[in-house]
Amino acid sequence: MHQVDVAIVGGGPAGSSAAKAAADGDADALVIEKGVPRSDRDHLGPDSTDAAGMLDYWVDIMDYEPEEIPEDIILSDLEGAYFGGPSESATVKNTQIESSWDGFGFAFQRARFDDWLREEAEAAGASYEVGTNVTDVESTRDGRSYTHRLTLADGEEIEADALVLADGPQRTVTLNAVDQFMPSGRSISSLLGPKTANHIAYQEHRKIPEELFDPELLKFWWGVIPGHTAYPWIFPNDDNVARVGLTMPIGMDLDAVANRDAYTLLQPDDEQIPPGRVYIRRLLEWLYPDYDLEDFPLVEDRGKQKGTEAYPISSTQPIESPTQANVAVVGGAMGATSAFHEGGDHVAVRTGKIAGRLAASGDMQRYNPEWKDAIGDEIIRNVSLAERARDMGPADWDEVFRTVRRMVEFEGTRGRQAFRAGWSGMSLLGRYLWTRRKFRKHGYVQLRESEYAL
Ligand SMILES: Cc1cc2nc3c(=O)[nH]c(=O)nc-3n(C[C@H](O)[C@H](O)[C@H](O)COP(=O)(O)OP(=O)(O)OC[C@H]3O[C@@H](n4cnc5c(N)ncnc54)[C@H](O)[C@@H]3O)c2cc1C
């Protein structure tokens, strides 16, 4: 039996950040990562979604100084974000949120980012076992303390005082591990089950013709495909390659879509929601009618497999962790990722850092209040925007972008004024501020620690 102070399930941004922080605190920290092959990495590593944009203020949320971000992970500096509706659009050039990063943000190479976080953790003294799954966790109580026994797919057993669950949005380990602390008759699956608490995302790495490639803008189109917080995007990488992708709820029923003719990327003879690759083809045809799909060739040595990748992404609200059992759930596993704009690496890194530090110092009960202090504002913003978007259809999105565009133009001509048209410009519209009120005082938490049977 291998014994450690802190066992960490999953070696993505959350897990590696937890490992570094725990090792920095002199704990014996072990990351178990199942290990995923990728076209853009020559060794097994974490399941690195290669969709990676970092906004300026996210660097602060990660609790990194700008100069600590290695240059070789950055693919391009971003100058703004373009939001398209069926027929309106707006481009915002600042997030309007105070930050120490100079610029709108950057696009980065996710596999390199994950490798960097792992190198940092190993340099601090953490260990990794890559290439084997955690299949089971059994937690036993002895007086006031708990011991966690992890079983790996290769039969190895590991015993740990503290457990950090960083297995991402599929929560292959988290669901059963946390269920041990749920009151009888309740399961965490009703809140974090992967089919209901996640969206599916699909993307293709495509070479974009020189004259169309825009390396400085993230581009999103809202109200062109049906579904709550469902949208296609084009994210620039380097070398005229962009990730063309989309996110949408899992298992949508086309018959349940109201006003389906209004969605640009649906066609009258669709019998079901089109698969991601069809949506992407239609997006490119719609945006660039003078070009053929062959003008945007797949870049097969990138991404997970032959230039394409499909991933779940958490699209729910976070839970508190059963910290009395010395367990922290972090990053995508805890439901911290935004349903609205997909951003999640920053909250994964930060929650991991907090959990690892507290696990090492034996102070895990501080975890829930500390992560809320660190990322609470960001979660409120994200869940409020997602809520605001819930019933919006194509015409509503056009109205939003028309208004934001006017606000941006107005700002350009009149200087400072009451409307601020940055990343949160959309927040000024409609019911956003009212919605925010609902999530104040940690109203965004789906499950409180007091609800566990501890
Ligand atoms: C298409 C897409 C686009 C995105 N775009 C952005 C973006 O632009 N910016 C941004 O900030 N975020 C983005 N995100 C979100 C971001 O990828 C996630 O929030 C982030 O990866 C969460 O980090 P994590 O460490 O919590 O989980 P993950 O990165 O999912 O890591 C979990 C790890 O656990 C491992 N694992 C799972 N089960 C087991 C097991 N049983 N045993 C051992 N290991 C296991 C997995 O292999 C994986 O490596 C995007 C996500 C998607 C899907």
TrEMBL record:
All copies of domain FAD-dependent oxidoreductase 2 FAD-binding, residue ranges? 5-37
For this chain, one GO molecular function annotation is: oxidoreductase activity
InterPro entries from the UniProt entry:
FAD-dep_OxRdtase_2_FAD-bd (IPR003953), FAD/NAD-bd_sf (IPR036188), Geranylgeranyl_reductase (IPR050407)
Pfam families reported in the protein's UniProt record:
FAD_binding_2
Q: Which domain of life is it from?
A: Archaea
Q: Which UniProt keywords apply?
A: Flavoprotein, Oxidoreductase
Q: Which PANTHER family match?
A: DEHYDROGENASE (FLAVOPROTEIN)-LIKE PROTEIN, GERANYLGERANYL DIPHOSPHATE REDUCTASE
This one is known as NAD(P)/FAD-dependent oxidoreductase
Which source organism does the UniProt entry give? Halapricum salinum
